[in-house]
Write a structure and sequence with these properties.
The protein has 226 residues and is of the alpha/beta class. Helices cover 33% and strands 27% of the residues. The strands form two sheets. A nine-stranded mixed beta sheet has the order 5-4-6-7-3-8-9-10-11, with helices on both faces. The chain has a two-stranded antiparallel ribbon with strand order 1-2. The radius of gyration is 16 Å and the shape is globular. Bound molecules: adenosine-5'-triphosphate and magnesium ion. The site of adenosine-5'-triphosphate has 14 residues, from helix 2 and strand 10.
C-alpha cells in the first residue's frame, strides 16, 4: 500500500506515493522546502481522516501552523494531529523523549503518519558512533509504532544528494533530495527534486523541477531541468 504525499507530481514519480511503513528522509539546503514537503505529507493524511504527529525541533507550534498556512495548508481545520515540540539545545534528552513519548502519542490518536522536522540538530552534539546509535534507535522506534514517517535534514554542503553527516541515507528506506540549482549568480535558481532512493520501488533519479507557491509545493514531473 502507498501513502500519497499530497504532492501530485511527487506521487507520480514514486508510482503512487510512499510505501506504507517506510521511514523516508527529505534532505536539502536551507529554504528548499523540506518542512513544506513534510507538512504536505501530514496534511494529506488529515484530509483523508488519518491522524498525524509532527515532531518539531525548529519551530514552536504557532509558527508551524503559521508557516503551513502560508503555503495553503490550514492545520487549524483539523483536530486529528499533535505537535511535539522538542528543544534543539537538549538534543540527547529530546531524542529520548521521542523514544519514550511517541509510541503513546501515536496510540492515543491512532496516528498513521509522523513528521520529524528536522534532525539536523543531531550533528551539533554527538560523535559519529553516538549519532549512528541515536539514528538507528530512532528508526527502531518509528518502525515499531507502525507508522509511515518523513524525517527532514540538512544536506551536505558540497554534495547535495548526501545528508550532512552521511548516516541518514543508510537508516532510511527512502531518500528525497531537494536541490537549488544555480546556473549563474544573476539568474534565479531552479529548484530540483530527486528521488535518491526508495527501497523496492522503480523510480526515476532524474531531478525534476518544482516550485514553492502559496498553495504549496508543485512538482513538474513531466518537465526537464534545462
Ligand atoms: N507562499 C509562498 N510562496 C512562495 N514561496 C514561499 C511561500 N512560502 C514560503 N516560500 C518559500 O519557501 C521557503 C521555505 O520553505 P521551507 O520552510 O519548507 O524550507 P526548509 O527547507 O524547511 O527551510 P529551512 O532549512 O529553513 O528549515 C521560504 O524560504 C520561501 O522561499
Ligand atoms: Mg524547515
Amino acid at each position: 500500500m502507498r501513502l500519497s504525499t499530497g504532492i501530485a507530481g511527487l506521487d507520480a514519480i514514486l508510482g503512487g506515493g510512499i510505501p506504507k511503513g517506510y521511514v523516508v528522509a527529505v534532505i536539502g539546503s536551507y529554504g528548499t522546502g523540506k518542512t513544506t514537503l513534510g507538512i504536505h505529507f501530514i496534511y494529506e493524511g488529515l484530509k483523508r481522516g488519518e491522524s498525524g504527529v509532527i515532531i518539531s525541533f525548529d519551530e514552536d507550534e504557532e509558527s508551524v501552523m503559521r508557516n503551513a498556512k502560508s503555503v495553503g495548508m490550514d492545520l487549524e481545520k483539523f483536530e486529528n494531529f499533535e505537535i511535539m515540540r522538542l528543544e534543539a539545545i537538549e538534543v540527547r534528552k529530546s531524542f529520548e523523549r521521542i523514544e519514550s513519548d511517541l509510541p503513546e502519542m501515536v496510540k492515543s490518536i491512532n496516528a498513521s503518519r509522523v513528521l520529524i522536522d528536522s534532525i539536523s540538530v543531531l550533528e551539533t552534539l554527538f560523535n559519529e558512533s553516538e549519532r549512528y546509535r541515536i539514528l538507528s534507535s530512532l528508526r527502531k522506534t518509528l518502525k515499531s509504532v507502525g507508522i509511515t514517517a518523513i524525517v527532514t535534514s540538512e544536506a551536505d554542503k558540497f554534495l547535495p544528494t548526501a545528508s550532512k553527516y552521511g548516516l541518514l541515507e543508510y537508516v532510511c528506506d527512502g531518500m528525497i533530495c531537494l536541490k537549488m540549482i544555480r546556473k549563474s549568480e544573476l539568474e534565479e535558481p531552479t529548484l530540483g527534486l530527486e528521488v535518491v532512493k526508495m527501497r523496492g520501488v522503480k523510480h526515476s533519479r532524474k531531478p525534476k523541477p518544482y516550485m514553492i507557491t502559496e498553495r504549496g509545493i508543485v512538482v513538474y514531473e513531466e518537465a526537464e531541468i534545462l
